[in-house]
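pasting for ref
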Amino acid sequence: MIMWGRYIYDLVEKSLQFQLTASIVIVFFAFIGACIVKESPLRGIQMLWIYLTMNILASLAFVFEVPTEEILAHKPYGRKRPVLSRTMMKNIIGHAIYQLAVMVFILFAGPTVFKTDDGRSVDKIFKSSEHFTMIFNIFTLMTLFNQINCRKIHGEKNIFRGIFRNPLFYGIWILTFVMQITLVQYGSYVFSCVALTFQQWMWCLLFGVIVLLWNQVLNLIPVTRHMSERDARVDYELASRVDLDSDG
């Protein structure tokens, strides 16, 4: 009973951390883009696809995570513990800063660094461009790789531990990745994309993989505990009584 209770609580927190990070980046980047190019670099249909991966596919992947006894190794949650723990806030803010920095860098320096057309130019604002396609692709891949990070919300270093116990998780992840490739390379008319070269894809993947490394850096930043030892002890004793009652 205790294990399933913590599992559900962790499930909510995983989804919140994942969705809030992406939402913060989208809102701020859309605002910056609207101020600079008078329109968000992310098209409406692209935003729809991003939210589909965030709200439906990612949620399905998290839901079918198998609860294990590792959940019981964590200290009991205090009754006054907020849904967003300090560790989660650190991860949300930290990943949002990295992703937003990458997006802004690509927006302003992308055409020069990656030798693409400039999506900010007047004749490209309402047309597809390699520049804005890379922005869309990089953000989607960063979000996709951050989904792996969000499997662990207590500062664990090994984010891949137990990933193969949930075939639906890596199945949905791989499916989303393959669909992203298809949308970018062959969905130009519908998704306002231009097919990217192999080199451009490698750059996009690099920014996505760095999300995993950045998560390890964030784990090195210490956070204070949310509740006193007394609160933890009281909650643990209460949970133990509930468990004994359910067994009886």
